[in-house]
Specification:
The structure is a single chain. The protein has about 140 residues and is α+β, with helices and mostly antiparallel strands. It has one domain (about 10-130). It is about 20% helix and about 30% strand. It contains 3 helices and 6 strands; from the N terminus they run ααββββαββ. It has a 4-stranded antiparallel sheet with strand order 2-1-6-5, with helices on one face. A hairpin with a 6-residue loop joins strand 1 and strand 2 (about 50-55). It is globular. The termini are far apart. Bound molecules: zinc ion (ZN). Zinc ion (ZN) binds near residues 73 and 118.
Length: about 140
């Protein structure tokens, strides 16, 4: 029985995990990519408080092209941040970096579904290194 784990948060996460699992590896999808570095900073909805700042260098041979970053709100339902499109778009234009912010579109907690949104903010800076044209 999965009763303890069931619920809107669990179901959403399970679906998202499957979507990540079904996507190709970064190294497969973007063969010209040599490395990717993410500088991430989390803010709450007011942007007044920075919760955390992390630097993350995914292994291109194990990280997936559907790229999700967890929302820092542990009660968040249906949210999280997705950088899939940002990464693919920047690589398609062969950009050295890209930055911006994403707003969590989930609900603050399971008791506030359809009433109070999460709206945590993720600031991201992506840096890309490409294989040289002389490589293979
Ligand atoms: Zn959230």
């Amino acid at each position: 029985m999965f009763r303890l784990k069931a619920g809107p948060r669990f179901e959403y996460r399970a679906k998202e995990k499957q979507r990540v699992k079904d996507s190709p590896l970064l190294a497969e999808k973007f063969r010209q990519l040599k490395s990717l570095t993410l500088d991430l900073a989390y803010y709450d909805a007011t942007r007044a408080t920075k919760h955390a700042q992390i630097k993350y260098v995914p292994n291109l041979n194990t990280a997936k092209a559907v790229f999700l970053v967890d929302c820092p709100n542990h009660e968040c339902i249906g949210g999280d941040f997705e950088l899939t499109g940002e990464i693919a778009g920047a690589i398609a234009k062969h950009r050295a970096s890209a930055s911006g912010e994403l707003i969590c579109q989930g609900w603050l907690s399971k008791t506030t579904i359809n009433t109070v949104p999460c709206h945590n903010v993720l600031h991201y800076k992506l840096s890309f290194d490409y294989q040289s044209n002389n490589g293979q």
